[in-house]
């Protein structure tokens, strides 16, 4: 009989706030061709000559603002998610980070050492993007090829509009949004370069080709990050019964000068305050665990810029983290896999084969 196991995949964090550890982490992260998708020589120059000389110290200072006594908030919370899910199952659950520790290859090895030969893969990303969901899965499958090519793998698809995920977000946000006592609820998603949308579009002629491409049915939506973000918001506001004037979508964490998905969160928060919208709440649906981008970029930097621009009341709604509704959602997905609901002989992201060629 086969032995089943589950692996949770997330982004990762530096091992500490020491500049050397942050530099090592950033090098691994930024040298990933699915994050900075320039040719290797250009990517190497950008990372090693323009970014790493100054960015690690700045990032280390940001990490110090949120670091816990026992480590990275993202890793700590991800461990809690792993432990909470494991208590609901009778099979092994491991955690692998795309960059840093605990590493994806090490997590796979721990499962193999326990005899697992049937693996359910849960990328902790609700939406598909080459720089998050795809690179995490590709890294795992590379490790599978090296350690046990014949293992059976099944991949959980992006769950951006799954009712269980939406319900978990509603439950998490309810204490903050009930009564609609705010001027604007900002849905802040992690940004990506606009060119990533076009690159991930199998047809190469739909994404960003018209102003309404995300609302025009097309096969590209299977790997279109912006469309999937919009669908998450659509399902959330319908379930929460939010009027259109109460919410908006923005994108954060841009890098460099090229166009990224817009509107930008930081500029939007300043503009909302200047327009007299005094009470703002921000929710970050692309993150299933609080991390640097939510705890420092939004809850600290975002708050400061909003208040300095004239705002009065700001709240970053916590991510799903280890909330009971989210852990229940994950356990339901695992049980569906065990009941044969998913068919995936090999867990390959839909854009991977084309991009690799």
Question: What would you note in describing this structure?
Answer:
This protein is an alpha/beta fold and 357 residues long. It has 2 domains: 4-157 and 324-356, Rossmann fold (3-Layer(aba) Sandwich), CATH 3.40.50.1400; 163-316, Rossmann fold, CATH 3.40.50.1400. Helix content is 45%, strand content 12%. It has a 4-stranded parallel beta sheet, sandwiched between helices. The protein has a 4-stranded parallel beta sheet with strand order 6-5-7-8, sandwiched between helices. β3, α6 (130-147) and β4 form a beta-alpha-beta unit. α1 packs across α3, α5 crosses α6 and α7 crosses α9 (225-240). The two termini are 37 Å apart. Mean pLDDT is 93; it is low at 352-357.
Please supply descriptive tags for the structure shown above:
Rossmann fold, 12% strand, globular, four-stranded parallel β-sheet, alpha/beta, 14 helices
Which structural class best describes the helix and strand composition? alpha/beta
Main sheet characteristics: 4 strands, parallel
Shape category: globular
Strands across the major sheet, in which order?
2-1-3-4
Number of domains: 2
In a nutshell, what does this entry contain?
Helices cover about 45% and strands about 10% of the residues. It is of the alpha/beta class and about 350 residues long.
List the helices and strands and how they pair.
Elements: E1 4-10, H1 19-30, H2 40-51, H3 55-66, H4 73-86, E2 93-97, H5 104-113, E3 118-123, H6 130-147, E4 152-155, H7 163-177, E5 184-190, H8 194-200, H9 225-240, E6 247-252, H10 265-274, E7 279-283, H11 292-295, H12 297-308, E8 313-316, H13 324-338, H14 352-356
Parallel strand pairs: 1-2, 1-3, 3-4, 5-6, 5-7, 7-8
């Amino acid at each position: 009989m086969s032995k089943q196991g589950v692996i949770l995949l997330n982004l990762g964090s530096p091992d500490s706030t020491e500049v050397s550890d942050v530099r090592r982490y950033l090098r691994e992260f930024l040298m990933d061709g699915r994050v900075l998708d320039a040719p290797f020589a250009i990517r190497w120059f950008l990372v090693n000559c323009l970014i790493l000389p100054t960015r690690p110290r700045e990032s280390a200072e940001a990490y110090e603002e949120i670091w816990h006594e026992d480590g990275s908030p993202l890793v700590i919370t991800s461990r809690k998610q792993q432990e909470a899910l494991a208590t609901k199952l009778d099979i092994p659950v491991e955690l692998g980070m795309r960059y840093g520790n605990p590493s994806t290859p090490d997590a796979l090895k721990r499962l193999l050492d326990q005899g697992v030969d049937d693996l359910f893969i849960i990328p902790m990303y609700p939406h598909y993007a080459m720089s998050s969901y795809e690179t995490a899965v590709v890294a795992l499958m590379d490790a599978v090829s090296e350690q046990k090519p014949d293992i059976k793998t099944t991949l959980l698809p992006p769950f951006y509009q799954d009712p269980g995920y939406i319900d978990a977000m509603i439950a998490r946000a309810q204490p903050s949004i009930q009564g609609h006592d705010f001027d604007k609820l900002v849905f802040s998603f992690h940004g990506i370069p606009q060119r990533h949308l076009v690159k991930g579009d199998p047809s190469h002629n739909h994404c960003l080709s018209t102003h309404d491409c995300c609302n025009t049915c097309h096969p590209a939506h299977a790997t279109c990050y912006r469309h999937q973000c919009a669908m998450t918001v659509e399902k959330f506001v319908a379930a929460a019964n939010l009027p259109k004037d109460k919410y908006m979508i923005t994108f954060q964490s841009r890098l460099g000068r090229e166009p990224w998905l817009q509107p930008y969160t930081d500029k939007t928060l300043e503009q909302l305050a200047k327009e007299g919208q005094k009470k703002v709440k921000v929710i970050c649906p692309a993150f299933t665990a609080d991390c640097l981008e939510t705890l420092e970029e939004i809850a600290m930097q975002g708050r400061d810029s909003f208040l300095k621009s004239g705002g009065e009341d700001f709240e970053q709604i916590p991510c799903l983290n280890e909330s009971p509704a989210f852990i229940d959602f994950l356990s339901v997905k695992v049980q569906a896999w065990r009941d044969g609901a998913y068919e995936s002989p090999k867990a390959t992201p839909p854009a991977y084969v084309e991009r690799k060629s």
